[in-house]
Amino acid sequence: xxxxxxxxxxxxxxxxxxxxxxxxxxxxxxxxxxxxxxxxxxxxxxxxxxxxxxxxxxxxxxxxxxxxxxxxxxxxxxxxxxxxxxxxxxxxxxxxxxxxxxxxxxxxxxxxxxxxxxxx
Length: 120
Description:
single chain; mainly alpha; Arc Repressor Mutant, subunit A; three-stranded antiparallel beta sheet; 6 helices; elongated
């Protein structure tokens, strides 16, 4: 059987070309959003989940240090935001599992975190 004139033949219905990511989506991927510190201070104490507080702290420290440098994660600064050491470790382990950060674990010392700047 030939497929030259059959409008229902699957080979005739295939779309060729295209397949690239739209320009609008490509432009959006590397963008960042700034969050005012006042918002962080207002949201964190009311949130039961401390994930955002740890992420905000990491990103702020990364920005403050100029980006790409290792970040020490002591308990003290996070305690101000109501984040305990176990919650901190839960979030850090989750972020590491997602490939967003690398953690240098040091016995009896604060962990050192390196933010992965590549796509996970």
